[in-house]
Structures are given as C-alpha cells and as structure tokens.
Write a structure and sequence with these properties.
The protein has 3 helices and 7 strands. It is of the alpha+beta class. Helix 1 packs across helix 2 and helix 1 packs across helix 3. The longest helix is centred in the C-terminal third of the chain and has 24 residues. The protein is globular, with a radius of gyration of 16 Å. Belongs to the BetVI family. Keywords: Pathogenesis-related protein, Plant defense. This is Major strawberry allergen Fra a 1-2.
C-alpha cells in the first residue's frame, strides 16, 4: 500500500464560520439544492452528523458514480476543522483502500477565509494514481465549494 498526499488552498470572501456552517454542517440540506444536476441527496445513515457518523452521497442520474459513503472523523465548530474518510463507493474502485480528507477554514486578513484541504489516497498493491482522475475529483469538490460561496454571497443573512 502506498499513500499519496495532495494539499490545496482556496480563498473566499466569506468568513470561516459561515462557509463552515453551510458547506460542512448543513451540507446534507444545502448541497443537493444548489447542485441537483450533480448531487441527488446526502443522507446521514448512522449517527447525528458529528464525529463517528456515516453519510452517503447519492449522485444524480448520468453521473459516472452512483454513491459514496464516508465516515466523519472530526467535526470541530470552534476551529472550523473537518476530517472524513471515503469508506465505500464506486469512486474508490478496487485500487483504492480509502481516501481521507482534512479540511480547515482560517480567517483571512480581509475578513474572508482560506480553506486548506489535505487529501490522502491509500492505494492497494502497486497501483499508481492517475493525475487526471485526482484532478477531476478535486474539480468536483471545488465546484461544490464555489456553489456554496455564490449562495452565501447572494444570501448575506444565511448561515450567520
């Protein structure tokens, strides 16, 4: 097994508390409304959404994937940190044991936020990740993040 790590950073004009509440805490309600063409639903199938919970993302018709399940490893509303592990689903395929994500939102000097995301891909055997597949996954996550950001800009009283 090999572990391949990627880190990304994005800036937003939205303060950490608002983007964290919208994109993490209330993702199961907000994301399917903002992106029905991509996400059919997000269900909490075990727990209450806090650490230890299991969530399932059901993708929209026509998506290359049907669904994924992930475990919430950390959810800290004070430090705006969130960790989760993809544990099941067609996006993992036979060559990936799991994918872990660590997300942290920090206050930026202009009153907005900086999101820092670390993803770790745990491969099976001597499998090597294809950069284009990782890039496609990152682009889907960024699109979700940008949809939430646009919603919060258009709705300044939401998730205050």
């Amino acid at each position: 097994m090999a572990i391949t790590t990627f880190t990304d950073e994005h800036t937003s004009p939205i303060p950490p508390s608002r983007i964290f509440k919208a994109s993490i805490i209330d993702s199961h309600n907000l994301i399917p409304k903002l992106m029905p063409q991509a996400i059919k639903s997000i269900e909490i199938i075990q727990g209450d959404g806090s650490a230890g919970s299991i969530k399932q993302i059901n993708f929209a018709e026509g998506s290359p994937f049907k669904c994924v399940k992930y475990r919430v490893d950390e959810l800290n509303e004070k430090t705006f940190t969130y960790g989760y592990t993809l544990i099941e689903g067609d996006s993992l395929a036979a060559n990936l044991e799991k994918i872990t994500y660590e997300v942290k939102f920090e206050q930026s000097a202009d009153g907005g936020s900086i999101s820092k995301i670390t993803s770790k891909y745990y491969t099976v055997g001597d499998f090597t990740l294809k950069e284009d597949e990782v890039k496609a996954g990152k682009e889907r996550v960024l699109a979700m993040y940008k949809a939430v950001e646009a919603f919060l800009i258009q709705n300044p009283d939401a998730y205050v």
